[in-house]
Amino acid sequence: MDPALSYERVADLLRAQVPEFGPALQEHLTDFGEVLQHVLFGDFTRFVLDAHRQGQEALVEPATGRRPAPAVIRCFGALRVAWRAPARPRC
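RE: above sequence
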């Protein structure tokens, strides 16, 4: 993901880093017709907590059959990238 992450591209980052979140993101888009970041992060928070509670460390990446890093770790990795992105004023 491009280090010049923008506010508008946070959903793309989450989709790339945590593909398991894709269905929830799609449901969000269906419900709202656009990405509402503050609502999306509420959805993402619930996703992370549910993944942790369900022990989703055993998820297997369908495309390769390899075990990726645990879902919760990838979630926090995506957030780390987002937090490092420079803040830009919205006009």
